[in-house]
Amino acid sequence: MPTPQLRVAIVGAGPAGIYAADILAKADLDVAIDLFERLPAPYGLVRYGVAPDHPRIKGIVNALYKVLQRGDIRLIGNVDIGTDVTVPQLREHYDAIVFSTGAIRDADLNIPGVDLPGSYGAADFVSWFDGHPDVPRTWPLEAEKVAVIGNGNVALDVARMLAKHVPDLMGTEIPQNVIDGLAANPVTDVHVFGRRGPAQAKFTPLELRELGKVPDVDVVVYPEDFEFDEGSEEALAASNQTRQVVKTLTDWTMRDPADMTASRRIHLHFLHRPVEVLGTDAVTGLRTERTELTGDGSVRGTGRFEEFEVQAIYRAVGYFGSSVPQVPFDPVAGVIPNETGRVLDDDGEHVRGLYATGWIKRGPVGLIGHTKSDAQETIANLIQDVHADLRAGVLPGAPKADPESILERLRADGVPYTSWSGWELLDAHERALGEKQGRERVKVVPREEMTEISRGGMFVEAGAAGAPPVV
Predict the structure, then answer these.
(1) Closest-CA residue to 113 (of 273, 281, 272, 288)
(2) What counts of helices (H) and strands (E) characterise the chain?
């Protein structure tokens, strides 16, 4: 008697989920994979968490597209696990569930005044300019002077998007409502603050160099912020990336101020620890404490404070994971507790059939390469567990293993799920919108419109199940 097919649900169709699905699909197992996504479109933070003027992102999207286009992984979009389908319900249909839900909200910054009007989370701003369907269509761009707190690529994305002129964004997929908002942006100066030194900055060299190529935007750095200790020298010796970042920053310190005539400026400040957002009814400034390196690359306060006049603050201090109802969650670390991808309960025991990968597994650190290795580890352990079960005579056997049963459940509950063919329709629609403007793509923003366009591709699937498409 043949072994029943293993059925696996992967929750989250960003890079982590798609890489996990790809690795599992190529394993020596008879496996059916359903990839769930709460938005009508796939690709996660590649579509909704990276500034639209990054051309190299296209290469990542193309790679993810090729995985899903093969047809051996079924995409089920516009389904929120925990709301539209609970995890216990999902377990009725699948032998294993892999959570790749990522980290999409801002980490907290606990300083006085951080909740004043005019203080924003970078993740929310990124979602706005990337056309995320679940954020407001407008953004209050009213400040001439802005502070960005953070020393990573997200901070640079926020600073660049605030300072960049709209005509220089018109070759991207930026939505029309974002164009309209940025066109009225009165900003002149964007100040980016990091509490450590240049050798500890988390910028990637390419991101930093791109900052220096933005038309009519000068990058200003301050020689007094350049301090290197033994830990900095060790970092420079150990990392070519660090050396490239420090070289770029050092080159900028040697620019002649007389040559800086741009209408907008991005100021990069190091060795500044934000301690208070100033203002009574709204943001009016930022107070920082000067820091100094301690010898190992970390810093301590000096007791010297400076104040910067700004009318808005963006917190780019990291992302934080969100819990999935009825799944263990660590509220301090913002991750699903796990051991090499196996989800753990409160007693530290593996919850049978539950796994995690990507940022919800390890926290919001690392680049695409780390996400792939993460997925390999998690899927290797899932496969190991399946083989151990088979050796023990435990066969796959979800109670509702028929592939149609989950779709029937969604239809019965009135969930307007989308599919891969639906994404291809939406993709073609966005490209057509872009072609009219001489651009590669223009994103559709409203969820209802995204769903309606995508649901036009449901005829084949819905018709096969004997139900009319919902459009």
Answers:
(1) 281
(2) 16, 18
One-letter amino acid at 161 equals M
Q: Is 392 exposed, middle or buried (0-12, 13-18, 19+ CB in 10 A)?
A: exposed
Q: Mean pLDDT, the chain, as a whole number?
A: 92
The helix (run of H) or strand (run of E) holding residue 210 is: helix 205-211
Cα–Cα distance measured from residue 384 to residue 388, given in angstroms and rounded to the nearest whole number: 6
CATH topology classification for 6-104+320-417: Rossmann fold (3.40.50)
pLDDT digits (tens, 9 = 90+) for 296-308: 989 999 999 999 9
- Cα Rg for the chain, rounded, in angstroms? 24
Contact 146, 190 (CB under 8 A): yes
Q: Residues 292, 295, 298, 299: what is their CA dihedral angle, to the nearest 10 degrees?
A: -20
Residue 196 in tokens: 């450590």
> Which tens digit of pLDDT belongs to each residue from 249-258?
999 999 888 8
How do 264-269 and 145-149 pair as beta strands? unpaired
393 within 8 A of 386, measured Cβ to Cβ: no
pTM over 0.85, yes/no: yes
State in words which class domain 108-317 has: alpha beta
CA 96 to chain centre: 25
Q: Report the SS3 class of residue 357.
A: coil
Both tokens of 46, joined, read 């590649």
Residues forming CATH 3.40.50.720 domain(s) in the chain: 6-104+320-417
Question: What's the gap between Cα 19 and its chain centre?
Answer: 15
H-helix or E-strand spanning residue 319: strand 319-321
**211, 228, 229: which is closest to 220 by C-alpha?**
211
